[in-house]
Amino acid sequence: MAVPKIIGLDIGSSSVKMVEIDRSKRGYELQYVGMAPLLDGSITDKVIKSSSALSVAIGGLHKNSKSKTRNVAFSLAGRSVIVKQVTMSSMSDAQLEKQIDMEAEPYIPFDIKDVNLDFYIMGDRPEKEGTMDVVLVAAKKDFISEYLGLVQSMNLTPVVVDVDPFALEVMYEFSYPNVQEEVVALVNVGASTINVNILKSGASQYTKDLPVGGDSVTREIMRFFDVDYERAENIKRGSQMDGVNPRNLRKIFQRSVDHFVSELQKILDFFSTNVSYDPIQKIFLSGGASAIYGLTSAMESELNIPVELVDPFRSLRINEKAFDLDYLHQIGPSMAVAVGLALRDEKDKQV
Ligand SMILES: Nc1ncnc2c1ncn2[C@@H]1O[C@H](COP(=O)(O)OP(=O)(O)OP(=O)(O)O)[C@@H](O)[C@H]1O
Ligand SMILES: [Mg+2]
Questions:
Q1: pLDDT digit string, tens, across residues 304-324
Q2: Nearest 5°: phi and psi at 321?
């Protein structure tokens, strides 16, 4: 069996996920999938607060995986990372590479010397001759260093540094190659962030990270029922319900779902007024918090767009003797980013 070249490592606010995909001649096969929950406060606003907790989680997963590779693709998010679509004068990839600092400077709210930059040329802008659309990705160097330092301290080699919305796109391209709808939105509802990536004919048109997620539901359960974080997480997932009035719990879910949906509505409105008139035909929903009671149905009814829950394993070969299919099905939406990272190639650029 071929040695997998890259491990997908998704360092989320609530858990670390690891995925390995074996790329042999027979096709792509799932080799390893693992998730290690983090203690509350290990990562706050995407900033690493407890390197030791993360080391234990990452080290444990890597050991479990029995992987022979140490190459990893991981992703960054949060306030120190900017993903922006801009319009600039048409030029070649090589030319832009040379002058990226100068071209990007007006769009980046940090000192250009303090960031690492990457870009992706989307293509010419038909409405305005001589211009092209470019996606800029900028991440603060000290922020990247924190994550790089963590990964390297585990004796792992970071070969790709990605951002969540693009990892989702890679997962989607691979997992859903035959989707009929032309314009789709990938929506990943995590613990602290909702990532959105709107694609047209498979190419990203607009991305946005919203600083809201399932963690706010946990906090509200903690406050309302006066319980600790762990218990609140369990209540949220439907266990440890003694002393919990289901009607009150449903109200909490309802409020959060309404908030998520109205934030999403704003993004979709922005897209349709500023980016493209094309109606979004389908939403592919992922992230652990996609399981929040009532979210899918509220999105369908309020946004008026059909929603499909993502299964990032659907196009992979799965050895049924090694994996429990029900478990894979259950954790699938949470693993969307990690699968996208595991599908990255070493030649993919770094931020
Ligand atoms: N069955 C469930 N019902 C409701 N919420 C759930 C369920 N399972 C997980 N969640 C919630 O999903 C969130 C975790 O999702 P995910 O793993 O995608 O986030 P993350 O990657 O750790 O965070 P982020 O990407 O925002 O930094 C948590 O808030 C968790 O409580
Ligand atoms: Mg996440």
A1: 999 999 999 999 999 999 999
A2: -80, -25
Minimum CA distance residue for ligand 1 atom 21: 12
Please count the other Cβ atoms lying within 10 Å of the Cβ belonging to residue 317: 13
Closest CA to 288 of 338, 257, 332: 332
In the chain, the number of structural domains is 1
Q: Which domain holds residue 119?
A: 81-139
- 149-203 pLDDT per residue, tens: 999 999 999 999 999 999 999 999 999 999 999 999 999 999 999 999 999 999 8
CATH code for the domain in which residue 135 is found: 3.30.1490.300
Has residue 60 been placed in a domain?
Answer: no
- Count of alpha carbons within 13 angstroms of residue 166, beta-carbon side: 24
Q: Say if 96 falls within a structural domain.
A: yes
Q: Is the distance from the beta carbon of residue 334 to the nearest atom of ligand 1 less than 6 Å?
A: yes
* Cα–Cα distance, 324 to 319 (Å, whole number): 9
- Do the domain assignments include residue 100? yes
Q: Which residues of 141-281 form beta strands (DSSP E)?
A: 157-163, 183-189, 194-200, 203-210
Position in ligand 1 atom list of the atom nearest CA 336? 18
pLDDT at site 349:
60
Q: How sure is the predictor about 2, in pLDDT bands with cuts at 50, 70 and 90?
A: low
144 is a domain residue: no
- Look up residue 62 and give its amino acid: H
The C-alpha atoms of residue 241 and residue 301 are separated, in whole angstroms, by 29
Cβ 15 under 6 angstroms from ligand 1: yes
| 190 alpha carbon, closest ligand | 1
Structure confidence at residue 350 as a pLDDT band (50, 70, 90): low
Burial category of 39 from C-beta neighbours within 10 Å (exposed 0-12, middle 13-18, buried 19 and up):
middle
